[in-house]
Amino acid sequence: MTKRGRCDFNAGMWRMKQWVLVLAVAAAPWLAGLSFPFLYDDIGMIAENPFLEDPANVWTVLSGRTLADPHVVNGRRPVVLATYFLDRAWHGLQPAGWRVTNLALHLACVALFMGLVRRLTGHRFMAAAAGVLFGLHPVVSEVVHAPGFRADMLCLLLGLLALHGWLTPRARGVWLGTVAAALALLAKETALALPLALALVLWLFPRDGLVRGAAARRVALAGGMAAAFFLLWVWLPTELQAAGRVWNGESLRFPETIFSAPALWTRTLRLALVPWPLNVTPGFVPVASAFSLRFGLGCGWLLLCGWGAWAARRVAPALSLALGWMLIFFLPVANLWPLLHPVADRYLYPVLPGFALLVAWVLAQQTRRGRNVGLALLAVVYAGLSLVRVGQWQSAETLWTHAYFQNQQSATAATWLGLLREDAADPAGARVWYQAAIAANPQAAPAWANWGMLEAKAGNLTTAEPLLRRVTELQPDNPKGWRDWATCLAQMGRAEEAAAAHRVAAARAARQGSAKP
């Protein structure tokens, strides 16, 4: 081997060791929660999902038939369902196996983002620091720990693969980018932002061998795919998020959607900078007027970040990319199209790579000693907070107690605490929690349903009947609510009304859909 060959080999080995070290550090905090039980959406989407129990259904997923079947939870996200079938085949219902898959996907996202930063900037420290900070950031804990929230991770992973493909001058790069982008769109709707991300990257970092016309064609291809998928989702029988649904008491309504977007950006920046406290069911007070202080401050932050991205485009393109990335991937969760839940920690997962690059760029401007010490301190703080956050998922009691303590307007947390009291054979305690849930959000149909079923089991049919009837008013398209009410009516001897309710339930079952935010 020549001297130059040995140098290249040694440099390659050093880079490989650096990447392995970064990924090992990024993985460490999440190992503590591998054996924790399934909680929250993991229960309904995985542990108690009858669709996953039949292996033959995997062909329904792979053939795309779930896209037009509103009965399948997450049917519009077949890529997510495909990974669930793989985990079910390999690990059964052992949570640790599912979480190992989640962790592997997260580390793949970290590696691909590091590779993108290295490819665009040529800066090794900036790439490694961005990987460490993104991999350890406490806000990602919800997505990394809970397989039920895997969609965000798969969407980012496939989106990064698409960007790598589209940045490759050869024709095969176009194929890789196109296929990966299509899969990203079939993982989560956030991938609609990919054309903007590609345009930003090609604008800030023009590629050798990729002439301007070819770059424009790739952006146009990405934009056409996104538009086609959006039109498909609008046409499909399952509603796209909260649009067209009966109001659930949480989703934003016009014009709150417009006035709240800047405040949501402020919240995103705050959680990125100070990632605590975190909550599985955070609250958000809508902004109802353009004259609100929150609207003005949010617009100020938006303008400042937009101006920063523009001003840095020539002198610091990495900084411009960081700010632009955050703004682009904030758009799908800005609630301009109303989401079922206006805010959630997991919504920040695709935004955080941009924030990690922003901090990495700041660190890279320091002395070698300063940047290394700064990165080490941030890594320790992030890892510690992530460990604490993962610890809150060790049991349902711990998770929902923390959630309700942090947000006492969370009807979801109160409802789960009521279910836990039922499991503990404490109907009086359960009743208190269901009442608290309804007080927090009178539109919370699960609280009405659980309280009604609690009273029905206790034989208090006259109390249960109006509670269960209320569920049918809040969720008129939910066949289960009609069936529960019909059963209660039958037990009360109101046979004619029960038969009518059963007929409505049968009709609703033919067109009922379900989709996660």
Structure, explained:
There is one protein chain. It is globular and about 75 Å long. The chain is 68% helix and 0% strand. The relative contact order is 0.10. It has helices at 3-27, 41-47, 50-53, 57-62, 78-91, 95-121, 124-136, 141-145, 150-166, 171-185, 194-204, 212-235, 256-273, 293-311, 317-330, 352-364, 368-391, 396-406, 411-423, 427-440, 445-457, 461-474, 479-491, 495-509. The model is unreliable at 7-11 and 511-517 (pLDDT under 50). It is built from 24 helices and no strands. The chain folds into 2 domains: 19-391, no CATH class; 408-509, Serine Threonine Protein Phosphatase 5, Tetratricopeptide repeat (Alpha Horseshoe). The chain starts with a helix and ends in an 8-residue tail after the last helix. The protein has 517 residues and is mainly alpha-helical.
A few lines on this structure:
This protein has 517 residues and is mostly helical.
